[in-house]
Amino acid sequence: MFVRIVVGLVAVAGFLAACGGDxxxxxxxxxASIQADPLTRDTPDEVAGCIADWYLRYAxxxxxxxxxxxxxxxxxxxxxxxxxxxxxxxxxxxVRAPGKP
Length: 101
Fold this sequence. Notes:
Shape: globular
Mean pLDDT: 74
Largest sheet: none
Number of helices: 6
Order of helices and strands: HHHHHH
Number of strands: 0
């Protein structure tokens, strides 16, 4: 009986490991999506990285996935951000004109 329980637990653990993990795209995938969009393709790595970090910290997994998949979202970052701290962090991402140091 004990062996059957252990085998069952190992099978369940294997299934959960295969299905587990963070369902959101990676930071690099978010950055690639930002820089692939014609409207934001000139975004410097530092700024794109800040935006990616913000999405990973504050956005819901489904929002991150939709963003990376290019699904349109009419909401503003204020509507996605859960509070004023999150909104402030997005607005604090470095902003530079393309081609400027």
